[in-house]
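We modelled each protein-ligand pair independently. The example shown here corresponds to the zinc ion entry; the chain sequence is given first, followed by the ligand as SMILES.
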Amino acid sequence: MRAALEAIFATRIDHVRVIEHSWFVRLHGRAIATTRRGRIYLRGSAQEFYTNPPLLLHEYCHVIHQWQPGTLTVARYLAEWLRRGYWNNRYEVEARAFAQAHAAALHTRLKGGGASAAPAPQPSSASRR
Ligand SMILES: [Zn+2]
């Protein structure tokens, strides 16, 4: 799972802590996850999280692409949220687009590991008369 995510993000993600069954998420209304710098807080279990490619990509996008470079801060998120709400604020739009763009690729990597997805080359029967 980590290798698959690291391939998609093209960076290491092992410094990101995932905190399951977090009370902190409960402070965020009905959210199922919330992020901070280097952290992902989950309402549910890590196991559920790791088997949900779109959610994985969405939350890691917030951490790796937004918190890490500093484009996302609590103050900035609040300002965006007040202006545009949850759905249309630029951080959510970006995370959603990223998840959508890479969900299929992650799903394939998690399932097949790549090598098994390609059919083994077969000798052509036409060449053996
Ligand atoms: Zn989000």
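The longest strand covers residues 33-36.
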